[in-house]
């Protein structure tokens, strides 16, 4: 019997309050490995704030929202006329 394919979450409202690397990878359309690289990077240097549950990493949705807002702000600054 074939395993049922997992559906990707693509809407913000469908994301749970506590996210896994896979949730973020699906939502951002990036690799799970890249998400783990962002987890290893300090939030002060552009990483995503996270916490451990055993060997797993988790992210509060509010922290993820803050990270996204910060990234959007950085991208806007690149295009501001000097």
Summarize, please.
This protein is of the alpha+beta class and 82 residues long. It has helices at 21-28, 32-40, 61-78; strands at 18-19, 51-53, 56-60.
Keywords:
alpha+beta, globular, 3-stranded antiparallel beta sheet, 43% helix, 82 residues
Taking the sheet with the most strands, its summary is: 3 strands, antiparallel
Helix-strand string? EHHEEH
What is the averaged pLDDT score?
90
Radius of gyration: 15 Å
The best one-word shape is globular
What does this 3D model show about the protein?
With 82 residues, the chain is α+β, with helices and mostly antiparallel strands. It has one domain (12-78). The chain is 43% helix and 12% strand. It has three helices and three strands; from the N terminus they run βααββα. Strands 1-3-2 form a three-stranded antiparallel sheet. A hairpin with a 2-residue loop joins strand 2 (51-53) and strand 3. Helix 1 (21-28) packs across helix 2 (32-40).
SSE topology:
Elements lengths: L17 E2 L1 H8 L3 H9 L10 E3 L2 E5 H18 L4
Antiparallel strand pairs: 1-3, 2-3
Helix pairs in contact: 1-2
């Amino acid at each position: 019997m074939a395993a049922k394919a997992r559906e990707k979450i693509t809407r913000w409202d469908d994301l749970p309050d506590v996210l896994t690397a896979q949730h973020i990878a699906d939502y951002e359309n990036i690799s799970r490995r890249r998400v783990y690289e962002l987890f290893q990077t300090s939030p002060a240097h552009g990483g995503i704030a996270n916490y451990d549950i055993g060997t797993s990493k988790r992210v509060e949705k509010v922290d993820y929202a803050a990270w996204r807002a910060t990234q959007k702000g950085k991208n806007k600054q690149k295009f501001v006329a000097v």
